[in-house]
């Protein structure tokens, strides 16, 4: 079978380009492999059949002849192992690429997610306004460290890898915050990622799969 | 060289057994490989030499003849690839084990970390008391899903894997909260992990490496 991922048939405008099927689509485009998309609604994603693969009721999931998995980071790594383009050939380089995948997912994204909590998902809660400055300060500290690690390099470790794909995907979550602009080398890093033809193809396909209006479940 | 990890020479009592060098130690014990520990103080961890490997100024880091990496999840995966014991032999099983590593680090730990924020690191902030019930509710929802995924199995996917090592390490963070007790199958899962001889050896060595009193940097 053609490797197949799941994606939503609709999300609000603010979430478009950020749903995590983007990471799988981008990975496929980087290695130049065809893939199929099963576009599903929110009720299906929360239903028992989907949850047998994705226990938390989210997208994306991934299926090929060999395996069915969830977690966009694990899916991106699995795609990266299918063909050259996202992982170096040597074991040490592969370990460093995995390190950056996990750094993005465990050391950077959780902080950025808290900004989405105070600004979007919990914007109306009484604690969010008071909490926001600390959330921003925590992110600033992490971005300063990451910026120092990137230095004047184009990518985190040699050639573009699944580590960069994941880190750029995570950092993009700061676009509306203005925080990236405080770290010009990181802003340029994200812009380099978003300028890649593979990213642009993935984004176009991601956006094209959404219905304009919410679809009744 | 003997593979070497870094660990702290001292942390407060509440953090003992939870510092992430535990994950690397446990992984080494599971595959039965000797390792060395470079015990360092907090000033060294925040210094420029350590940050060249660990940009965020944390432990653990890992070094062998081939590679130097950070991120406990990436280190555990790297150790798991050195010898049998933590990854199945087939590629599909390996992808599912990686999926659980990343699920633990990206879908479970960030929520549990927020409980540590309100209860410990931001306990004195004006927003923490108001926020706590929502943090707990979010964790409950995630644990319910995870509990359903585990079902009546001993481990998440067949034999004990690096995915279980990471998930148990993450769920342990709830010991003081009482939340695990609300999900008896997850409490039993964590207890099974902590009862493994490899875990117990790792914990004993982790604790033995701490000084009793803070060491001036």
From TrEMBL, chains A, B:
Domain GST N-terminal, first and last residues per copy: 8-87
Residue ranges annotated for the GST C-terminal domain, each copy included: 90-217
Pfam families membership: GST_N (PF02798)
Origin superkingdom: Bacteria
Protein name: Glutathione S-transferase family protein
Species of provenance: Sphingomonas hylomeconis
């Amino acid at each position: 079978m053609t490797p197949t991922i799941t994606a939503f048939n609709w999300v609000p405008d603010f979430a478009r380009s950020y749903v995590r099927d983007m990471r799988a689509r981008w990975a496929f485009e980087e290695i130049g492999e065809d893939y199929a998309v099963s576009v599903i609604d929110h009720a299906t994603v929360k239903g028992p059949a989907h949850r047998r693969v994705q226990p938390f009721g989210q997208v994306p999931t991934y299926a090929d002849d060999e395996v069915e998995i969830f977690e966009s980071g694990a899916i991106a790594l699995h795609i990266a192992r299918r063909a050259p383009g996202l992982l170096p050939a040597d074991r040490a380089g592969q370990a460093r690429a995995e390190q950056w995948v996990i750094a993005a997912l465990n050391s950077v994204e959780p902080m950025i997610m808290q900004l989405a909590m105070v600004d979007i998902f919990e914007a109306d809660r009484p604690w969010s306004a008071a909490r926001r400055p600390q959330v921003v300060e925590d992110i600033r500290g992490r971005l300063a460290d990451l910026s120092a690690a990137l230095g004047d390099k184009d990518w985190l470790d040699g050639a573009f890898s699944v580590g960069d794909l994941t880190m750029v995907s995570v950092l993009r979550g700061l676009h509306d915050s203005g925080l990236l602009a405080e770290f010009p080398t990181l802003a340029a890093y994200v812009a380099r990622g978003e300028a890649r033809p593979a990213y642009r193809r993935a984004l176009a396909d991601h956006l094209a799969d959404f219905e304009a209006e919410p679809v009744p479940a």
